[in-house]
Write a structure and sequence with these properties.
The chain is mainly alpha-helical. Helices cover 69% and strands 0% of the residues. It contains seven helices and no strands. The protein has helices at 4-17, 21-35, 53-70, 76-79, 81-90, 96-112, 119-137. It is globular and about 40 Å long.
Length: 141
């Protein structure tokens, strides 16, 4: 599914993300809620204002889940199975939202890693996040 070059780019980018999962994850969610306000419906119980502790905390969880997959690209389905179950059966999140969040994550990475996030890295990471979104949507089928 991923070439050796793509895997190396994904791992390299993720190593730079790891120290910033809370900050950048929170930024991605804030961007999601601003650009796609309909996504707030799943967070009625949470303070979705910019910079809120709840958004930063959830952003951290999201990014760490993505990170667990970045380190094991060949086993994404297994790695994300419990999250797929949670989002499909318990939270009933519309799977289109995974693609929207993926886009927001790409924007955050491009903002924070301008020299590292080359067109090739962008392409590899977009493919990776599309894979994450597909796996998270797997249980909806």
């Amino acid at each position: 599914m991923y070439s050796a070059t793509e895997k190396a780019l994904i791992v390299s980018i993720w190593e730079k993300v790891t120290p910033h999962t809370e900050e950048w994850g929170g930024e991605a969610l804030e961007r999601l809620f601003t650009v796609f306000p309909q996504t707030k419906i799943y967070f009625k119980h949470v303070d979705t204002s910019p910079g809120s502790a709840a958004i930063r905390s959830h952003g951290d969880k999201v990014m760490k889940a993505i990170g667990s997959t970045a380190g094991d690209l060949d086993n994404m389905l297994t790695t994300l199975s419990s999250l797929s179950n949670l989002h499909a059966y318990n939270l009933m999140v519309d799977p289109v939202n995974f693609k929207l969040l993926s886009h927001c994550i790409l924007v955050v990475l491009a903002n924070h890693l301008p020299s590292e996030f080359t067109p090739e890295a962008h392409l590899a990471f977009d493919k990776f996040l599309a894979g994450v979104a597909s796996v998270l949507s797997h249980k909806y089928r």
